[in-house]
Design a protein that fits this description.
Elements (H helix, E strand, L loop, with lengths): L1 H11 L8 H14 L8 E14 L5 E13 L13 E6 H14 L27 H19 L8 H8 L3 H8 L2 H4 L3 H10 L5 H49 L6 H16 L1 H58 L7 H9 L4 H81 L2
Antiparallel strand pairs: 1-2, 2-3
Helix pairs in contact: 1-11, 2-13, 5-6, 8-11, 9-10, 9-11, 10-13, 11-13
């Protein structure tokens, strides 16, 4: 009996078995190959504009909201002199993007689903508005929604989803179709996932490390964005001080005859320098949005970890139930009770059950054990497959993250160098003006 229990417990942790390095490499290579078959190779898609509208919500109250225009057309090479096909268009609200992403989260629990741009502005510096209807914020969110569609369309698995294709091509029927899939009934509650997290006996060390990595990445990007807000505020103040210099030099030039031209020219350079800060910080906001995307990606990574914990917990519960049933069978067959039970006490008080009753119970237990073993086998296979497919996507995500953040940080550094060179040029021009006085 102890041997049976041990073997079942060992089966219950097979889902944690390491994938060999060779298999991991093959999986990654396959993933790389599949990218060539994604929807993005067949269809071009853009979120071209945003429009503010007013209407009534579900409780018949007036509300103002924003809709986004999605344009799609076949990605075909045109012959010389040919005319591009007119793109198909449809309007989507942000809430519809949320519905699509929730569907993808439930349908593909082993995939790190690309995040949506923030619904309300966070990590803003004082000149920016936190209003979700602010034109600048809406424009940045439009860019983020387009990026979300491109991320999904270039994914080797998500790009083949029929519901995603309907989202791009069917304006009215799409919502009914996605709700008919019943994905909402499959959505596991956060409370159930948290319960599994605290009760799993054999957590997978790889997913534990991945969750820790995700938390650390979230913390580091959050700190970086907060520092960026402080730097933006300070930089804005420095540039506006130059605007004050420009105004002073211009006013001063009006009362000076010999130095008037030099002061006016210097003031002009200072005004130009001060006015450039708006474009600089707007460009910086683009890089901040790239960091925010990976800030939100960390929650998608944790979602995969939570799904694995839930599957591992369910696997362990099936294994534990099977051990208990086998123990009951042994006790019934031998007539010995290892632990206190209500049935055992009842037998002592009211007498032993008949041979026919015992045999009937043994047969029922045997059938239940066979079903339990089959369920355990299915759960274990399911867990193994989840680990394999999830790790493929995790490797793909890490490669994507390293590439994107490297390019973003290099571009940001180049922008800063360019900004500093312009500042040096402005002060060099102002110095020449002062030298001519």
């Amino acid at each position: 009996m102890m041997t049976d229990s041990r073997s079942i417990e060992e089966v219950a942790v097979i889902g944690n078995t390491d994938i060999s390095s060779t298999e991991s490499e093959n999986n990654l290579i396959n993933t790389m190959v599949e990218r060539g078959t994604t929807l993005l190779r067949k269809m071009e898609m853009n979120v071209t504009e945003a429009e503010k509208r007013t209407g009534k919500n579900t409780v018949n109250m007036q509300e103002t909201y924003t809709v986004y225009l999605i344009e799609t057309q076949p990605a075909e090479t045109l012959p010389e002199g040919g005319t591009a096909a007119t793109p198909d268009t449809l309007w989507r609200r942000y809430s519809e993007f949320e519905l699509l992403r929730t569907y993808l989260l439930v349908t593909y629990p082993y995939i790190i689903i690309p995040p949506l741009p923030e619904k309300r502005a966070e990590f803003v510096w004082h000149k920016m508005s936190a209003d979700n209807l602010d034109p600048d914020f809406v424009e940045r969110r439009r860019v983020g929604l387009e990026n979300f569609l491109l991320r999904v369309a270039s994914h080797p698995v998500l790009s083949h989803d029929k519901i995603f294709f309907l989202f791009l091509t069917e304006e009215k029927e799409w919502r009914e179709v996605v709700l008919e899939t019943g994905f909402q009934d499959k959505f596991d509650s956060r409370l159930k996932s948290l319960s599994a997290m605290f009760r799993v006996k054999n957590p997978d060390k790889r997913f534990t490390a991945l969750k820790l990595y995700s938390d650390e990445l979230n913390s580091l990007i959050s700190q970086l964005l907060r520092v960026r807000v402080k730097v933006a505020d300070r930089l804005y103040g420095v540039y506006k001080v130059h605007g004050n210099y420009g105004r002073v030099f211009s006013e001063w030039s009006a009362i000076e005859k010999e130095m008037g031209d030099g002061l006016q020219s210097a003031g002009h350079h200072m005004d130009t320098y001060a006015a450039s800060i708006d474009d600089i910080l707007e460009e910086e906001e683009h890089y901040a949005d790239q960091l925010k995307e990976y800030l939100f990606y960390t929650d998608a990574v944790r979602s995969v970890c939570r799904k694995h914990e839930l599957m591992q917990y369910e696997l362990e519960m099936v294994a534990q139930d099977l051990v208990q049933k086998k123990q009951q069978k042994e006790e019934l067959a031998t007539g010995t009770v290892r632990v206190f039970s209500l049935k055992g006490m009842t037998s002592k008080l009211f007498g032993q059950e008949s041979q026919e009753q015992r045999e009937s119970r043994l047969a029922a237990l045997q059938q239940s054990i066979r079903e339990g073993e089959e369920t355990l086998k299915e759960k274990n296979t399911e867990c193994q497959e989840f680990v394999r497919t999830a790790w493929e996507d995790i490797e793909r995500f890490k490669e994507q993250k390293d590439r994107d953040l490297r390019e973003a940080l290099i571009s940001y550094a180049i922008m800063q160098i360019s900004m500093c060179k312009k500042g040096i040029q402005v002060w060099s021009n102002a110095k020449e003006c002062f030298n001519k006085m």
